[in-house]
Amino acid sequence: LSTWSAVPAGPPDPILGVTEAFKADTSSQKINLGVGAYRDGNGKPYVLSSVKKAEELLSASNPDKEYLPISGLPEFTKAAAKLAYGDAAPLKKNAVAVVQSISGTGALRIGGAFLGRFFPHAKAIYIPNPSWGNHTAVFRDSGLEVKQYRYFDKKTVGLDFAGMKEDIKTMPANSIVLLHACAHNPTGVDPTPEQWIELSNLIAEKQLFPFFDMAYQGFASGDTVRDAFALRHFVSAGHQVALAQSFAKNMGLYGERVGAFSLVAADAEEKARLESQLKIVIRPMYSNPPLHGARIASTILNNEKLYADWLSEVKGMAERIISMRERLYDNLVGLNTPGGWGHIKSQIGMFSFTGLTTPQTQKLAEKAHIYMTADGRISMAGLNAHNIDYFSESVSKAVK
Ligand code: PMP
C-alpha cells in the first residue's frame, strides 16, 4: 500500500482549467480571455523595452549570483516603497518597514504570517466578495480567520457601496480589512476617490486595520500616482497600513516574482523591530528572495531615463486596455445587444466582469471558441484589433 493512498485528488484550478480547454480547441478563431497576463496588440506576451534595457545594463555589469539578504535587495525595497508611498510622512521619517517578497502572492503571505504572529487582536481578516481567488487560501494558510464583506452589486454590475459600508460598520473593532488598492480583481470595479475618503474615515472610526493589496499600480489608470491614491490617502489620514506590492503586471515581470511587503510603523525604532521580525518570518519559509527580477526592477526604478521609459510603457499598456473597453462598448451597443454595457467602460484594470452568466460563457466556449471564467470575467488584455469584432458579435449573439 502506498503511503499516499488516502490522499484525494484536489479540484483543478478554475483559471488554469480555462487555459486547458483553450489549448485543446483547434479552431483558428479561438480566444483565451481567462489568463491574467498582458498581451500586446497581436495577442503575444510582452516584454517591456525598459526591462530589456535594464537586463542589458545588468549583464554588462557582470554581476555575481551571491545570496541576497533575508529582506532582499536594499536598493529595490527602498525604491518600491517610494513608488507606493510617494512623499508620505512615515517614509520620510524612516518609519516604513519593507522587505522583498516573492511577487504579490509572497507579500500577502508574509503579511498573513506576520499578522498571524503579532497582530495584537482577534486574527480575523475581511476580504471583499468577490476577491482574487487566492486571497482566502493565502490568509487561511497563514492562520487567519477569513471573512467577507459585500463589494459587488450584480444588479448594477458596479460597487455595492452601501452594502460595503454596512458590513464595515458591523465588523468587530480591531479586525483586519483587506482592500484592493486599485483595479479590483476580478470585478474591475473600484471605489471613487470620494468613496475612498469615506472608507478611510469609517475604517478609522471602527478602529480596523487596513491591509492593501496593490498588484496593479500604474496598470489601472496608466498613472502610478493616481493608482496609489487610496493607499496614500489612508497613510496621510494616519492609518498604520500593511501593503503587498507586485511588479508582475506593471513591469511584466510575472515569472520573475518581484514584490514587496511593508508595514507603516510609528517611528524608525519601531520600524527596525518590525523588520527584524519580518526576517524571522521569512527565514524558515525560503531563506532569502530571488535576485534577478529585483535587480531588473531596481535598475528601472533607480535610473532616471529607464524610469521615464517604464512610466510611458505602463501607460501604453493601460491605454491599450482602455481603448479595448471603449471599442467593446461601442460594438455591443452598435449591435443592439440587450442590456446596459456602460460598466465595460467604467471598470478598470486587467479584468472586466461582463455580467455574462455561466450558461452564456459555456455557449461562447462551445459555439464561438471563446474562453473565460464561469463568472463571466474576461481579461481585457486578451482582446485586440484582430479579435474584438468577432468577440463582440459572439457576445451579442450569446446574449440575444
Ligand atoms: N493580488 C491580486 C489582486 C492579483 O490580481 C494578483 C495577480 N493575479 C496578485 C495579488 C498576485 O500576483 P503575483 O503573485 O503574480 O504578483
TrEMBL record:
GO-annotated molecular function: L-aspartate:2-oxoglutarate aminotransferase activity; pyridoxal phosphate binding
GO BP: any one term: L-aspartate catabolic process
Ranges of residues in domain Aminotransferase class I/classII large: 29-394
InterPro entries: Aminotransferase_I/II_large (IPR004839), Asp_trans (IPR000796), NHTrfase_class1_PyrdxlP-BS (IPR004838), PyrdxlP-dep_Trfase (IPR015424), PyrdxlP-dep_Trfase_major (IPR015421), PyrdxlP-dep_Trfase_small (IPR015422)
Cofactor: pyridoxal 5'-phosphate
EC number: 2.6.1.1
SUPFAM superfamilies cross-referenced by the UniProt entry: PLP-dependent transferases
Signal peptide boundaries: none
Top-level EC class: transferase
GO CC terms, sorted: mitochondrion
CDD domains: AAT_like (cd00609)
Keywords recorded for this protein, A-Z: Aminotransferase, Pyridoxal phosphate, Transferase
Subunit text: Homodimer.
Other comment: In eukaryotes there are cytoplasmic, mitochondrial and chloroplastic isozymes.
Similarity comment: Belongs to the class-I pyridoxal-phosphate-dependent aminotransferase family.
Protein name: Aspartate aminotransferase
Organism, scientific name: Wolfiporia cocos (strain MD-104) (Brown rot fungus)
